[in-house]
Each structure stands twice: as structure tokens, then as C-alpha cells.
Design brief:
Strand content: 15-25%
Radius of gyration: 16 Å
Largest sheet: 7 strands, mixed
CATH superfamily: Vaccinia Virus protein VP39
Distance between the termini: 33 Å
CATH topology: Rossmann fold
Number of helices: 8
Bound molecules: S-adenosylmethionine
Order of helices and strands: HHHEHEHEHEHEHEE
Helix content: 25-40%
Structural class: alpha/beta
Number of domains: 1
Strand order of the largest sheet: 3-2-1-4-5-7-6
Shape: globular
Oligomer: single chain
CATH class: Alpha Beta
């Protein structure tokens, strides 16, 4: 879904950073070989993630929902030299694909993959984060937030993807639509929780930036 007219959307993309060659290759191979390629962040959002990470220059990053590794590499572009990016995905079939691209990037030694359910893995990570990207199953967003909030350094940033859910957040919600219901609660939580301040950006499918106070 385009939240601004398609022509203006193209103008925005054409006046932003180009997509690096490695990410173009990752994008192509995802579309050729992997199911549901539209899950990948893609050129414009990837450059936004990269820019945010470079502005923060984080030591430790957590990503919840790796898929084929596109956004992980974008986030790693801003990481400190000795920093660690921990990324979690429940789909073990994606592990080798992710590793191939992580090792082709300059950040292979910084990126640690975790395979399994993020709700179990996050509590086992004994470290603090400067940047977290939440981009996995929507019904668990409120749980992910509660699991990461006490692992954030002060001034750290939590990015939450797909918060507009293709516009469904302002439509009538079906009783069995657990993802939209969860996102409605989650978006409310992000505006009301006193531990953070948030801005929802209408980028792609909606990206909220929350700064930890
Ligand atoms: C939207 S995709 C991530 C896209 C990726 N961040 C990007 O921008 O390229 C969501 C991913 O979350 C993973 N996922 C879903 N439920 C999960 C869970 N409970 N724990 C960990 N990963 C999960 C899926 O396997 C999928 O690869």
C-alpha cells in the first residue's frame, strides 16, 4: 500500500540514498527463492533503517524477525566496530541464506543469529541494547516490548515496523483478526507508556520510533 501518491513515492525514493549492490542482490535472490518476499524491508525503508542506525551509532542492536537478513544488514551499517547485532528468527530454513549475506557484508563478525521463538530467546540475552527493531509476528508485539524495555540503555531506540498494518488500524476489525487487534493495543501502549516517547512515521507500512527515557 502506498500512503502517498505513487508518483510522489517514486520521487521520494529517487531523492534518497541508492540501494547498495549487495542488498540489491539479496533482494533479487529473496524474490527468486524464498516464500513471501514482500516481508523484506526493501530499498527505501532499508535506507531509513541504515540512516537511523548511523545517527545512533549503537554498540548493541537487537532485531526481532530476521527473514532473509535485509534489515539486519541495514541496521549493522551504523554499528560500532566492536558492536554486536543479535537477530532472531523462528524459521530455521532461512539460517544459511542469512549467513551467506551477513558474511558477504562487512558486518559478518558483528552479527549473531538466533533461531527459535523470540519470546524464549530474548530473556536469555544477557546484555543491554541501544537499538531494537521489532519486525516479527504482530500478536507478540506487546510481549516483545515488555521483554526488551528493561534491556534498553537510556536514550536507546526501539523501532516497530508495520504499525499501520496496510491501513487496517483505522478500519472495522474482524473478531478473528488477532494481528490488527494486537497492533491497536500496541500503538496505544507506545503512546501512553511513560518510559518512552514515540513518533509514528507513515513510512512504508508504518514505522514507530520510540526513544527510551
Ligand atoms: C516481516 S519478516 C522480517 C523482515 C526483516 N526484518 C526485513 O525487514 O527484511 C518477519 C519474520 O519474523 C519471523 N517470526 C515470526 N514469528 C516469530 C517468532 N515468534 N519468533 C521469531 N521470529 C518470528 C518470521 O519467520 C519472519 O521471517
Amino acid at each position: 500500500m502506498h500512503f502517498i501518491p505513487e508518483a510522489l513515492d517514486s520521487y521520494v525514493v529517487n531523492h534518497s540514498e541508492k540501494e547498495p549492490e549487495l542488498l540489491q542482490q539479496l533482494n533479487r535472490e529473496t524474490y527468486q527463492k524464498i516464500l513471501q518476499p514482500r516481508m523484506l524491508s526493501g530499498h527505501y525503508q532499508g535506507r531509513v533503517l541504515s540512516m537511523i542506525s548511523k545517527l545512533i551509532n549503537p554498540k548493541n542492536i537487537l532485531e526481532i524477525g530476521t527473514y532473509t537478513g535485509y534489515s539486519a544488514i541495514c541496521l549493522a551499517e551504523g554499528i560500532q566496530k566492536e558492536g554486536e547485532l543479535h537477530t532472531i528468527d523462528i524459521n530455521e530454513e532461512l539460517e544459511d541464506f542469512q549467513r551467506k549475506y551477513f558474511d558477504l557484508s562487512p558486518y559478518g563478525k558483528n552479527i549473531y543469529q538466533h533461531i527459535g521463538d523470540a519470546t524464549s530467546i530474548i530473556p536469555s540475552l544477557d546484555m543491554k541494547f541501544d537499538l531494537v527493531f521489532i519486525d516479527a509476528d504482530k500478536p507478540n508485539y506487546p510481549t516483545y516490548f515488555e521483554l526488551v524495555i528493561n534491556k534498553m540503555n537510556s536514550g536507546g531506540v526501539i523501532l516497530s515496523d508495520n504499525v499501520l498494518w496496510n491501513g487496517k488500524v483505522i478500519e472495522k476489525v474482524d473478531d478473528d483478526d488477532l494481528s490488527t487487534k494486537a497492533l491497536l493495543s500496541y500503538n496505544k501502549l507506545l503512546t501512553e507508556d511513560k518510559r518512552i516517547e514515540s513518533v509514528l512515521l507513515p513510512i512504508r507500512d508504518g514505522l514507530t520510533i520510540s526513544r527510551v527515557l
